[in-house]
TrEMBL record:
Protein name (database record): Long-chain acyl-[acyl-carrier-protein] reductase
Cited function: Catalyzes the NADP-dependent reduction of long-chain acyl-ACP to the corresponding fatty aldehyde. Involved in the biosynthesis of alkanes, mainly heptadecane and pentadecane, by producing the fatty aldehydes used by aldehyde decarbonylase.
Organism: Gloeomargarita lithophora Alchichica-D10
Superkingdom of the source species: Bacteria
InterPro entries given in the database record: AAR (IPR016836), NAD(P)-bd_dom_sf (IPR036291)
């Protein structure tokens, strides 16, 4: 049995679908109430691989909302994550993905120090961030879509916003290995971490976001931002491929410009319909088949019987593990979203 721990995009979104999640009484409630709400299993899932294997899973709604971070409700945010993990473990789920912000909160607030949640002693080997599969999918999206736009990856400038993050560092390692000539532009806020990462990578240049954006043929957004930001497409190169892997999205508004192509980053499409409702509630175009790559990682670990924290800790994503999870992804019928 696999598990998915997730959260909704914002308070407004949470209120609008509370009824469909099975708790209509939450629809009228504000952030204070959501800060108190316990985790709940709101979806039972069945997934069939193209090999014919069938697995079952559960979606645990953590009731975390990104506003808890932007409004400094850190205690509530951390409680949401550990309570959801304890809930998954109580239901005997073998391997559970910590989706979106839940893994970021786990890392940022050192939640590995908290083992005991009421009568549950957390066993971290039952959880994965899913970030190795996400990094793999983003690299495939770059490799498959950029050439179609006429971007030559051997000589392109690629900006990674969130380069020092878990997913960002994995993507940068892969780019540096696969395209040694690439002009890699590393962006984040903490300059010391950027310099250290640049040294570890042995390539790339550190630039402020505003300086780097007009230089980039490909822009990968994997920054942990509770709210998306605005960028002016006119100031970008044309053609420009933008891969927005943030959840919530790093871009605040939809970009419509003939020279700029925006892809939903870190999203996969399964070859067969998945029996669930959660992606419909998250407003995905093809909710029976499209899903976050981190969720798909838990499914892959379950298909393969790898009941282990495959992606764990920060900045540990290796090229070998990306290749390993990538091969499992192809084997079971997942494809990176390319449109
Ligand atoms: P991490 O916390 O490990 O890394 C976040 C990175 O973003 C760091 O480099 C951080 O550096 C940088 N950052 C944060 N805020 C800003 C900002 N305002 N401007 C520039 N850089 C910023 O996060 P993850 O790698 O785990 O996740 C990254 C994103 O991917 C998140 O939005 C997450 O929700 C999403 N995600 C998507 C998945 C999918 O399946 N599609 C799966 C898992 C996560 P610094 O603090 O120095 O700025």
């Amino acid at each position: 049995m696999f598990g998915l721990i997730g959260h909704l995009t914002n308070l407004e979104h949470a209120q609008s679908i509370a009824d469909e999640l099975g708790y209509p009484e939450y629809a009228e409630q504000g952030l204070d109430f959501w800060c108190m709400a316990p985790p709940q299993i709101v979806d039972e899932i069945k997934v069939r691989s193209i090999t014919g294997q069938v697995i079952e899973g559960r979606y645990v709604e953590s009731c975390f909302l990104p506003e808890m971070l932007s409004q400094n409700r850190f205690k509530a945010a951390t409680r949401k994550v550990v309570n959801a993990m304890a809930h998954a473990q109580k239901y005997d789920i073998d391997i559970t993905a910590l989706g979106g912000f839940t893994s970021i909160i786990f890392e940022n607030f050192n939640l590995d120090q908290i083992r005991d949640i009421r009568n549950v002693s957390l066993d971290f080997s039952r959880f994965t961030t899913g970030n190795t599969h996400t990094a793999y999918v983003i690299t495939r999206q770059i490799e498959l879509v950029a050439p179609k736009l006429g971007i030559d990856l051997e000589r392109a400038s690629i900006l990674v916003c969130g380069a020092t993050g878990d997913i960002g560092s994995g993507v940068c390692r892969w780019l540096a290995h696969r395209f040694p000539q690439v002009d890699l532009i590393l962006v984040a806020r903490n300059q010391q971490r950027l310099q250290e990462f640049q040294q570890e990578l042995g390539t790339g240049r550190v630039l402020p976001l505003a300086t780097g954006l007009p230089l980039a043929d490909v822009i990968v957004w994997v920054a942990s931002m509770p709210k998306g930001m605005e960028i002016n497409p006119v100031e970008l190169k044309h053609p420009c491929l933008i891969i927005d892997g943030g959840y919530p999205k790093n871009l605040g508004t939809q970009i419509q410009h003939p020279g700029v192509r925006v892809l939903n980053g870190g999203i996969v499409e399964h070859s067969l319909d998945i029996d669930w409702k959660i992606m419909k509630l998250l407003n995905y175009d093809v909710p029976k088949r499209q899903l976050f790559a981190c969720f798909a990682e838990a499914m892959l670990l379950e298909f393969e019987g790898w009941h282990t924290n495959f992606s764990w800790g920060r900045n540990q994503i290796s090229l070998e593990k990306m290749a390993q999870i990538g091969a499992a992804s192809v084997k079971h019928g997942f494809r990176p979203l390319l449109t």
